[in-house]
Amino acid sequence: MVKMSLDPVQVMSGQVNELKVSPSSNGDSRGSWDGKQEIDQDQLGLGTTPKPPKPENAVTIAVSSRVLFRTDREQKVFEQKGVEEYLRYQIEHENEPFSPGPAFSFVKALEAVNARLRDLYPQSEELFDIVLVTYNHAHVGIRLINTINHHNLFIERFCMTGGSSPIGYLKAWHTNLYLSADADKVREALAEGIAAATMFMTEKLTEVSETQLRVAFDGDAVLFSDESERIFKAHGLDKFFEHERENEDTLLDHGPLKGFLETLGKLQKKFYAKGHRLDCPIRTFLVTARSAASSGIRALKTLRAWGLEIDEALFLAGAPKGPMLEKIRPHIYFDDQMFHVEGAAEMGTIAAHVPYGIAQKHNAKRNASGGK
To answer: pTM of this prediction?
Structure first.
């Protein structure tokens, strides 16, 4: 199995091939005079930098700098030499861009979707808005900005907390999803009702689409509540199947990422309305260990009642998820169980752990007893 770490200051070790992109500038924030100049440039057809949407209108994705970029070396400096040496090191290397981290391809795919949305709806602010969230001191901001420009990313909003927890700012940003390498902060965000997941690096990395955002979800304790998972853990598989058949007309309660799937569905419908259902740049997948005949009806009825269209549903009846995810090639896959996250990572999928529900208690017991 791929070695995984839930240490708040580490992500999985491994290599990422740096994407080849041309250097570019995002532009700087401007005052009122420069704002007037920018309007004049737009009227002349010279202004090309898009404006970030208002947070209340956008689908806000808050991403930690340690999952957007590779900062392993810098983290070691911090751990071994302390904060002052860390800051000095960052300043000395501020013209050296970080290489891409596990969330990089996901963010690039979000930007590709935004480009299509702007073409179809030039005045709309219903777009993905990426906020870079970091514990770093503002001194490190120059290196982060240089890196963003180097990789041609459009990220204008930063939240640099200087060592303080960023969780309190997430609601102020109207955050729809928070991705971090810090499992404790992810749990804090989930406790605040914010969709969140812990991301990991893999030794192997599967190539993903540059034109279509592909997002895969587990079912129970991710899209749905952990109600059915509790039955399975307490009473076994047969009782679980019996419970699902008896309750197939009773909707499952929502899980922590239901709201994020809803936002994806809302954006998909904007493409459908313009005749782009077949070439929609967003595609969603349900990848669940449930069995179709024995327990799939309740899950599908729940999604339909919520008004959500999952593009593809894979009921694996306990089969490994890794090989299926290798074929799907999602930019990100969400699961509540580390066993499945590890299996996905082994096959080269960027997987994110959602530490929610009854499975976390079982994971804790297994770890305490020395289990893998």
So the answer is: 0.83
